[in-house]
Amino acid sequence: AASAPKPLPSSGPKSLREMPHPLATSSSEEMGPALTPSPDLLLPRSIADKDLSLPNGTPVDTSSPASSSSLLNRLQLDDDLDVETRDLFVTVDDPKKHVCTMETYITYRVTTKTTRAEFDLPEYSVRRRYQDFDWLRNKLEESQPTHLIPPLPEKFVVKGVVDRFSEEFVETRRKALDKFLKRITDHPVLSFNEHFNVFLTAKDLNAYKKQGMALLSKMGESVKYVTGGYKLRSRPLEFAAIGDYLDTFSLKLGTIDRIAQRIIKEQLEYLVELREYGPVYSTWGGLEVELSEPLEGVSACIGNCCTALEELSEDMTEDFLPVLREYILYAESMKNVLKKRDQVQAEYEAKLEAVAMKKEDRPKVPTDVEKCQDRVECFNADLKADMERWQNNKRQDFRQLLMGMADKNIQYYEKVCVT
Amino acid sequence: MEDCLAKKMEITVSEAEKRTGRNAMNIQETYTAYLIETRAVESQSEGQCAPVDSLWRRYSEFELLRNYLSVTYPHIVVPPLPEKRADFVWHKLSADNMDPDFVERRRIGLENFLLRVASHPVLCQDKIFYAFLRQEGGWKEMVNETGFQLKADSRLKALNATFRVKNPDKRFTELKHYSDELQSVISHLLRVRARVADRLYGVYKVHGNYGRVFSEWSAIEKEMGDGLQSAGHHMDVYAASIDDILEEEEHYADQLKEYLFYAEALRAVCRKHELMQYDLEMAAQDLTSKKQQCEELATGTVRTFSLKGMTSKLFGQETPEQREAKLKVLEEQIQEGEEQLKSKNLEGRDFVKSAWADIERFKEQKNHDLKEALISYAVMQISMCKKGIQVWTNAKECFSKM
């Protein structure tokens, strides 16, 4: 049921072509609209013509109407987008160590290939470190508070326990960072975020970061989008359900994480014993004449089993566990978003009540109230849409993950069989 | 294996039963009795089933039989009995003698013992052995009547001989070293294997937890639910499969244990040789000294220092008649001694010959058996891996349907 985009009379969402390039506007302008219409359909909205914006000046993403049918359309188009009309590809690779006087750190190469008009060039290649990814994530959270932002791998590592510069650690992190960017790339709204664009393209990211800070202090507004202290009476059913689901989900994942760790531990202990087992056959072989060959054979086989088992444990540690942990982090950040949503709704309800109490109809208040209402509805819609997408992706991810685990085990057994 | 009993008769230890009774000291005890069934083979070819004879024996009677055989045939590597108490257990198996699994494995071990004896060209002809299989009552008395206990060499004597023997046959010395090392390496192997089994058990069982979590998780999922649930089921199957796998492995361990105990039997033969050799050397030494004494007496010279010589110097020499008498006694003793030495020499050589023949037979048996055991162990491992592949492939399929 997709129809052609209709240009709307308001300053609201414009079609792709009409949108000025975010970076084309000079830096003297205020941080321009981070408004990113969904690249697919612009559908008739129930809330029309209002200049809706968030406290820090960035307009609310109104391209996500609250009606469910439009939600459905959006999802269908998302699928199409994924399959055929991909126009942005991002990769993270090539980790390099940098040694400076003050510190040592790792940078990763971020390569972008795109046909989108928002980008000046079709290809970019920049170097970024973890700090930069962290900055990006924070920016995304600020500018798109109604959306679910994918998680980053853990920031802090206990020194002495994990070697920050070990190959395995760096590789695990690289994969997670790659995943992070790919998830943003796939997101119909987030991928058009201005900060994301800069992250992918700017030669000197630090300059941009400083600029952003300066502008904000000019505006004199707090960066964080926080509605102060409103208490929500009750969460609507569907969001409560999501909340419950996330709670159980994190719990189960946590359990699986523990089980997997336990298995790896047991496997390593098994490995220790196997390592002693093999050589005994060898010793015995030394005693015998006729039997020495078969005994040596058994010893060698056991040795091979040890190697195969080691590989299995390594793979599980490097590939399986991090993904589990990432989803737990994801669930946590999602719960936070839910809380924020609650607060928005609380504010709305409080203001609504306040208005109802007043006899006078002050012009500002209705707008205020309506603003809140819009916020709430947008929030809800975005959240729902994102949840759907998240569920889909999660399903795919886990499918892959568990299949991978099964595969690894299969490979292990096959290797052992061969020996 | 010409004419051995095993070919003429089917022997099985078919059942085991718990019994209570009063022992020699009139104290009540619980023990296990084993049913031995025998049936003549020839009549089967006529298409008729020969009658099965059976009787019950307990472990201590088996022990008595084996002791008798070891003493009566010291040049034979006598097959060992299965262990009296459960050893080299990994944590799941109990060390309890009454445990049904242990009893079952012992039953198999005892049957194996009887078959080994019955297939031995020398041992199978022994009447006591035959009576053990066929004669219910009065067997114990029969064994004791043979007086074999008297023939048994004391441990102390054997130990003494081991230390003092000067010229044992080199092959036996080597064999003794071999059996010591074999014993040490197999015990080590069995101990580590038990630990390996323990750990493997742990790995498999923890996977069972996946089953539970997947099940719980599937309850909150929509599309992923079915896939998770069925995958969880496979994890349960995986966790359960370890029990059978390790049960089979116990059989392999038992095969190794048999040869662990066989090492002891080898050592016993070597000890017997050392004892005989020592005996021989002592006899020869005795003879030499007597001959010397004779010479001294006859010639009147004292060649070596002796107390007799000193006392005779101090207290005067003997009368010629006394000397004559002594000389005569000595000459008789020398005569006896020379005959004894001859027969001991012969005995010794015979022993070495027949012992070595049996040892060669044993070596072949050992190589053959252990090779087969190793092969079947490898087959077991492969089958275990194949099962693993199966389970994970199934799980993978479930995941792919998520």
Automatic annotation (TrEMBL), chain A:
<dbReference type="GO" id="GO:0034727">
    <property type="term" value="P:piecemeal microautophagy of the nucleus"/>
</dbReference>
<keyword id="KW-0813">Transport</keyword>
<feature type="domain" description="PX">
    <location>
        <begin position="86"/>
        <end position="207"/>
    </location>
</feature>
<dbReference type="GO" id="GO:0032456">
    <property type="term" value="P:endocytic recycling"/>
</dbReference>
<dbReference type="InterPro" id="IPR001683">
    <property type="entry name" value="PX_dom"/>
</dbReference>
<dbReference type="GO" id="GO:0015031">
    <property type="term" value="P:protein transport"/>
</dbReference>
<dbReference type="GO" id="GO:0061709">
    <property type="term" value="P:reticulophagy"/>
</dbReference>
<dbReference type="GO" id="GO:0000422">
    <property type="term" value="P:autophagy of mitochondrion"/>
</dbReference>
<dbReference type="InterPro" id="IPR027267">
    <property type="entry name" value="AH/BAR_dom_sf"/>
</dbReference>
<dbReference type="GO" id="GO:0035091">
    <property type="term" value="F:phosphatidylinositol binding"/>
</dbReference>
<dbReference type="GO" id="GO:0000407">
    <property type="term" value="C:phagophore assembly site"/>
</dbReference>
<feature type="region of interest" description="Disordered">
    <location>
        <begin position="1"/>
        <end position="71"/>
    </location>
</feature>
<dbReference type="Pfam" id="PF00787">
    <property type="entry name" value="PX"/>
</dbReference>
<feature type="compositionally biased region" description="Pro residues">
    <location>
        <begin position="1"/>
        <end position="10"/>
    </location>
</feature>
<protein>
    <recommendedName>
        <fullName>Sorting nexin-30</fullName>
    </recommendedName>
</protein>
<comment type="similarity">
    <text>Belongs to the sorting nexin family.</text>
</comment>
<dbReference type="GO" id="GO:0005769">
    <property type="term" value="C:early endosome"/>
</dbReference>
<keyword id="KW-0653">Protein transport</keyword>
<dbReference type="InterPro" id="IPR036871">
    <property type="entry name" value="PX_dom_sf"/>
</dbReference>
Automatic annotation (TrEMBL), chain B:
<dbReference type="GO" id="GO:2000786">
    <property type="term" value="P:positive regulation of autophagosome assembly"/>
</dbReference>
<dbReference type="InterPro" id="IPR034902">
    <property type="entry name" value="PX_SNX4"/>
</dbReference>
<feature type="domain" description="PX">
    <location>
        <begin position="12"/>
        <end position="139"/>
    </location>
</feature>
<keyword id="KW-0653">Protein transport</keyword>
<comment type="similarity">
    <text>Belongs to the sorting nexin family.</text>
</comment>
<keyword id="KW-0813">Transport</keyword>
<dbReference type="GO" id="GO:0015031">
    <property type="term" value="P:protein transport"/>
</dbReference>
<dbReference type="InterPro" id="IPR036871">
    <property type="entry name" value="PX_dom_sf"/>
</dbReference>
<dbReference type="GO" id="GO:0031901">
    <property type="term" value="C:early endosome membrane"/>
</dbReference>
<dbReference type="GO" id="GO:0032266">
    <property type="term" value="F:phosphatidylinositol-3-phosphate binding"/>
</dbReference>
<dbReference type="InterPro" id="IPR027267">
    <property type="entry name" value="AH/BAR_dom_sf"/>
</dbReference>
<dbReference type="GO" id="GO:0031201">
    <property type="term" value="C:SNARE complex"/>
</dbReference>
<protein>
    <submittedName>
        <fullName>SNX4 protein</fullName>
    </submittedName>
</protein>
<dbReference type="InterPro" id="IPR001683">
    <property type="entry name" value="PX_dom"/>
</dbReference>
<dbReference type="InterPro" id="IPR034783">
    <property type="entry name" value="SNX4"/>
</dbReference>
<dbReference type="GO" id="GO:0005886">
    <property type="term" value="C:plasma membrane"/>
</dbReference>
<dbReference type="InterPro" id="IPR037430">
    <property type="entry name" value="SNX4_BAR"/>
</dbReference>
<dbReference type="Pfam" id="PF00787">
    <property type="entry name" value="PX"/>
</dbReference>
